[in-house]
Amino acid sequence: MQIAVVVGNPKPHSRTFAVASAVAQSVAARLDGAVTMEVDLALVADEIFKWPSDEMVRLNESVASCDVLIVASPTYKATYTGLLKAFLDRYPSNGLGGVVAIPVMTGASQLHAMSIDTGLRPLLVELGASVPTRGLYFLMSQMPDLEQVVELWTQENLSPGGLVGPSTRPAPPTKD
Q1: Partners of 106 in the beta sheet?
Q2: Which of 27, 42, 136, 164 has the CA that lies 20 to 30 A from 130?
Q3: How big is the CA angle at 33 (ends 58 and 43), to the nearest 5 degrees?
Q4: In a domain, 174, yes or no
Q5: Residue 176 lies in a domain
Q6: Are 142 and 110 in contact (CB under 8 A)?
Q7: What pLDDT score does 36 carry?
Q8: Which domain holds residue 99?
Q9: Domain count along the chain
Q10: Do residues 41 and 54 make contact, with C-beta atoms less than 8 angstroms apart?
Q11: Residue 102 counted as domain residue
Q12: pTM for this prediction
């Protein structure tokens, strides 16, 4: 199982990158997978708007060929960054078909926690990715507890056999 990380923070080596990497490591440990690539978009920002760009074609193809994709962004104006959007705009419709995506967003306030479901999840689904779990909205005040927060999220969203989501969770018992 190949796991990729894409982080859309304009600041290189950001705290958002640290959170996304922690999620990827936790997912990899649960799914017997390996983190095969981490893309810090801040380090390739000068290439994102170049058409054509062999480097961006290579990155997009590598990301699209992974099994699980962790997509992370800080919350900017109640949604994801333009840097992340510009990278994802390079994909055609269904360009992430067959990929399981896990949205991760960071922020300073719980007020924007729904930005995962109102902004990032719909974009990933539009690109054909499956998004079977809740995303992780990580408050920056939780940085000292990063490993514990990620472990709790992982326990709640991954089963021993794989990703848990609406389509894979057992149905609640019905009353006869």
Answers
A1: 74, 138
A2: 42
A3: 35
A4: no
A5: no
A6: no
A7: 85
A8: 2-163
A9: 1
A10: no
A11: yes
A12: 0.88
Amino acid of residue 59: L
DSSP the chain: -EEEEEE--SSTT-HHHHHHHHHHHHHHHHHT-EEEEEEEGGGGHHHHT-SS-HHHHHHHHHHHT-SEEEEEEE-BTTB--HHHHHHHTTSPTTTTTT-EEEEEEEES-GGGTTHIIIIIHHHHHHTT-B--S--EEEEGGGGGGHHHHHHHHHHHHEETTEE--TTTSPPPPPP-
The tens-digit pLDDT sequence of the chain (176 residues) is: 899 999 999 999 999 999 999 999 999 998 888 888 999 999 999 999 998 999 999 999 999 999 999 999 999 888 999 999 999 999 999 999 999 999 999 999 888 889 999 999 999 999 999 999 999 999 999 999 999 999 999 999 987 555 644 333 333 444 44
The domain that contains 132 carries what CATH number?
3.40.50.360
Angle at 66 between CA 68 and CA 137, to 5 degrees: 30
